[in-house]
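Usage

Read records sequentially. Each one opens with the input sequence:
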Amino acid sequence: MMRSMTQVLGPDGELAQHVSGFAPRPQQQAMAEAVEQALNESGRLVVEAGTGVGKTFAYLAPALRYGGRVIISTGTRNLQDQLFHRDLPLLERALGCEPRAALLKGRANYLCLHRLELALEEGAGDPATLRRINDWARITATGDIAEVGDIGEDAPIRSRVTSTVDNCLGVDCPWYQQCWVVHARRAAQEADLVVINHHLLLADLALKEEGFGELLPSADAFILDEAHQLPELASAFFGEHLSSRQLRELARDTAAEHARDAPEMAALGEAARRLESASQALRGVLGPAQQRAPWTSMREDSEVNAALDGVDQALANLAGLLAEAGARGKGLEVCGQRAVSLQARLAQLREPSASQIQWYETFTHAFALHNTPLEVSQIFSSAIGTYPSAWVFTSATLAVGGSFEHFNGRLGLEGSDELGLDSPFDYARNALLYLPKGLPDPNEPGYTEQLLDRVEPVIRANNGRSFLLFTSYRALREAAASLSQRVGLPLLVQGTDGRDALLRRFRDAGNAVLLGTSSFWEGVDVRGEALSCVVIDRLPFAAPGDPVLQARLQAIREQGGNPFYDYQLPQAVLTLKQGVGRLIRDARDRGVLILGDPRVQRRGYGRVFLDSLPPVPVTRDLETALGFLSFNEDHEAARA
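and closes with the structure output:
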């Protein structure tokens, strides 16, 4: 007789016998039972599993024992790698099963041999880096460019040696038989369990052909981890975008293919240069950098419309010449198709739509135009409804005050089975929430400096070992400048290095203070003595000037709802829960959480935030917080 999930994950179960340090948790067992039931009944399940529940094992164990094909989607590529290379093999050994498993990423993660060949011919980018990639290309078994090492996701060379849906030559590529994307896709099609990420899943749900359209219909179950990210990601993938990067890459690729296959067509090279110039001209009239604004502010601007006409004409001219040159080579033919597609996209972006939010953003030398759906609940629900499969959505932060209404409403998941599981960690003994007295409203001048006055004694008493999480780069920069004069401790500031490098330095230092914004609020796991204090500067309400937020709030208002309580407050609560989750990552962790924003005490909605946090004791007294840290030091010394 098959053992139940409670038995498998129990004190005498397979994991206790084969996984070093495994500790049975009733919450984990309850989640595994619910996931197994959803898989067997092709149901829909939404699970909030607090930090320490062990949700990865709770869905992997039933997935491995399930007889159908399972797709597991994670929030990031790093989590993908961790799940596939660490967690999955561990569970396979414990359960004694060996399913055919595959790891599949988006095509931009795999080396494109055709584009590498073009880059080598052009001498593109840093020669040393290009040689290193070429040497690696001869020995890699996967083509995953992450293997190369220190090539960042935004490094220009990545786009030169990887493909996109737009520039891929498909079956006509001379390297098709050696294509790493094709190999990865075939392995996924033959696997019983496939690990992907949300970007890949949503791209294919949105029919944007990111990699494996044949795989989704064959899946019997989908498990989506870090599901709290899905509403915002879905908004991006079900919308349309046109960026200066797309225009520049088309111009650059056309020039490369022109030099190879049609060098005598001088007009083609000139047309590519005109497109790049038109793109630069449009950027010039869109105003200063770092803007996110509604397109309505630009729709009637004569200079902007003239620049848009210039881009449109440059695309049309290029498309016409590429139609003539397409017979010379597949690369030129594909560039022609891209030019036609971008021109159509530009026309669509210039047409107002009641169901979409039209907005733009600018960077130092770049821009992007967007059409974002006003809401994605019907689109997402319809997309997943085409697959008569089990769907499991899980995260540590899905509920607000114990209710899943906000999350389910944003994705159209009403009617799903729901399960809320608190963290098994002893927050009442191991954590303390300190709410400093006497702070002004966060929008008043000098707020950050006054917050640091309250926080500095705690940081000193804790010998660093602190995260300071901010809701804006402005506050982060202000705090970094001040703390550099206040404390003689290693100060690590977001933007001075990559996130992973900063985290390594933080762990290694043992007495560092790390200052970060949104990217450090989630997906960061620092266990043990290195981190025992987390400071959050203010309640994380989204910036009110964001054009997408403005449009959604107006739509709620027009429908008779309350924009603040229906949208802004739930979103802020979920974000705060993510930040708070950085503190206690292990049953033996102890620490102080400092929430500076006085609105959590002065405003009625503050209770919603506090009620959504783990059951942690609260103090407004500095000496109590310092005493807790002193006990923490004594506790660590005794344990050592």
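Summary fields computed downstream for this record:
- The mean pLDDT is 91.
- Residues 302-325 form the longest helix (24 residues).
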